[in-house]
Task: structure prediction
Amino acid sequence: MAVHDVTASATGAEHPAPVAPALHPPRRRRRTWRTLEPLLWLGPATLLILTMVVWPIIEMIRTSLTKVSSTGLSEGFAGLRNYTDLFAEGDLPGVLLRTVVWVIGVVTVTILVSLGLSQLLNASFPGRRLVRWAMIVPWASSVLMTALIWRWMLNNFYGVVNRLLMDIGVLDAPVNWLAHPGQALAAMMGVAVFVSLPFTSFVLLAGVQSIPGEVYEAARVDGAGPVRAYLSITLPLLRPSLVVAAIINVINVFNSFPIIWAMTRGGPGFSTDTTTTYLYKLAFDNQSVGESAAMAVVNFGLVLAVVLVYLRVVRRQEDTA
Amino acid sequence: MKLRTVLLTAAGWLVALAFLAPYAEMLLTALKPTPELMESPPSYLPSHWQWSNFTQIWSLTDPRVGDALLFSLYVAGASTLLALAVGLPAAYYTARHRFRGRGAFLILVLVTQMFAPTALLVGIYREMVSFDLTDTAEGLILVNAAFNLPFCVWILNAYFASIPKELEEAAWLDGTGRFGALTRVILPLAMPGVVTALVYTFIGAWNEYVVALTITSSGNRMTLTRAIPGFVTSYHEQWQYLFATSIVAIVPVVVLFVFVERYLVAGLTAGGVRG
Result:
């Protein structure tokens, strides 16, 4: 539209004869160009997303309704058989419960600690840049490698965590942290919090920094102390950042496969599995690809539900605010 | 006031220590002589610093660190180029034009951002089997590029939108043409966004584990993350080599990440806020 007009008049003035016909195409050609042009710019990106993201979603749903042999061959429509098989698994309730505990626990602790860390990073003190750089390390590092070093540090014979806790008198004897399901889950949730903190703190820091200083000055003039100012100014104004941090964390934490895989493989048995490691084991250890696809669809639905509910809550809050 | 600064500094340095401690332990373990790894309780520091662990990893055959490093470089590099090649035009066009289908495209991008490959693993695996892409670099490149594309689009979109349209129009008047204006005026101004998208995608692909674990299996088609657990199996436990290799994998990307840190949050939250 405006864009084409500018181009036409600008170049048209310099090269009137040869260029003009192409720049003033008949109305019909111009209209087809207008519908086709976005395709040219967005087509490749759309194609990539459709083939690598949307297709797997469809393929996953299709597989969940298919009878798949242990060698991976499709043997026809299975109806809801894979789903009934899945829900008949004795391990499933535990896996689902742990997933809920895992997601809610890790995200809640991450956000609470990050609220504190973002305040710290916002204050000025010598070495603040170094602290920020230190927090980049877990963010940029592979989660797998971070999980492996934690597994090594928590080892009951060779791990430095036990040594340290014994040296400072907290423990009398080494603890085999990853051997008992409850302890192992708690330890792995700790690692999940550890790797989630940097990103979350930086997002909240960006939020804190976007609050204008005058708001606090006004509050101080009105006699509000720091606690009151935090509760009635900082937290409400941080809500958009909190929403982003919470949603992205829920998604990441739901899918945090490498931590559990590197530290316990969901074991012993299925006692520390969440839905993600469980569906992996169903597909690649048990060769039950159809059932695994059913688990993946349930997992997918859970993530989708969480995201939708959260967005609704936020929108309602914004309406009433 | 003085006390407040002292307390903040102490807290800040403790936090830094807490975040660095595991990686310091990673380095210390990588520098321990082999027999010392099996001491219980463990020593804090190596009795002597076995720097040769870092040279020995290159001559081991199981896994081959050099091959894995090259393969990771290839996969991460190609994923980044692909994501930018398709993301740049899309981000530019959506930032500059209002057209039918724009909303649908941005929702598609947002939905992609909401899902990690882990959630779609079974679907991805089945697709790779049907296209004969299992155990190939191409399969990994396509998946990595697709799942990192949303970030590229959001951050580049934000940069393109922040560049005044008048600048571009002035360039057209100077006779650069649309393409010339894009490459000679707009792209240089959007460079911080391009670099951030590049680094972010590269690191994402470099660190990717689950898809590599699922669709590749041959020794010469292993990324570093895929190969590293091979140092600790039921047959042998070579934690010193595992962590020496981890350090090799982590240090360069942390340095890269520090450079783009301040742009990252903007890019990540741009998509979320708009959703």
About this structure: The two ends of chain A are 40 Å apart (CA to CA). Residues 1-22 of chain A have pLDDT under 50 and may be disordered. Chain A touches chain B through 106 residues (CB under 8 Å).
